[in-house]
Amino acid sequence: MQPSNRFILLIPLTLLLLGLVSGLRPPINEDVSEKKRFWLEKTHTSEKFDMVIGGDSRIYRGVAPEIIENLLPDFSVFNFGYSSGSLSKRILSEITQRIYHQASNPVIVLGVTPHALTHHAATDNHFREQKAQAHTALFSYRYFYQLNEWTEPFRLSSLIEKVLGKDKGKSIYHQEYRKNGWIASNKTPANPQEALKGYDGAFKDNLCSEEMIQDLLQQVQHWSKQGIQVFAFRPPTTLAMYEMENKLSGFDENSFITQFQKAGGHWMKVSQTDFESYDGSHLTKESAIRLSKILAQKIKGTLNI
Predict the structure, then answer these.
(1) CB 42: neighbour CB atoms within 10 A?
(2) What is the model's pLDDT at position 28?
(3) For the domain 3-303, what is the CATH code?
(4) Does residue 43 contact residue 127 with C-beta atoms inside 8 Å?
């Protein structure tokens, strides 16, 4: 066979192979390319906002900026939560950089979880990983999104599982990545006990740090003197998780609230039993929307606007 004929024969075979791989390639529960672009844009944005919300994954999955903006239309709102995120000096400084200080009512909202006040959380691994990414990576995922989406690697084992039908019945994460920093989340099927497994080790040799608490209170006092209204609340989860954290973390919520208010902050009391969690730690999309409405109403009432 002539080389040219071989080449012509390879074309339909190659297209057929690509079609088979595309059909068999397992769906990605978390769209890897979209996820990477989301975190890069969130971390490297130079935009300033009237309201910045900081905390861990219970914040970035549990508070919807667009819902707050609906009730507070004069505010631009940004969710600055990260996985296993802390309220360390590093993060508090980053929050300061994202506040529009010339706003008529600049607001900072902090989601205070016991783990966010531990030294383990203060390593801020997730944030630092994203911060270390070069701007070229952001450029690539912003302007060559479709190409990146196709070229993202996938596990061969996932492909084999799909061919054999073993992928059926597995839990699926439903995630909607919003430009304002929120990830609307659900999981099918839900398992409200999932996060409790092994969580009892999260505070082993890793209790809440009094040093971090005092640093946070000092920053709240500084913000307040600058005319920034500082709000905080304990992100709702399941009652079982709430009680476990209280038992193991060393966090004295009542003492913290008293000190926080003395520093000039506004504490927002939120029920720990009125919301639905899909994994025992994070709120469903519907509960996140409801929580965001409650927070917006409390902020609006305090600011009297």
Answers:
(1) 23
(2) 45
(3) 3.40.50.1110
(4) yes
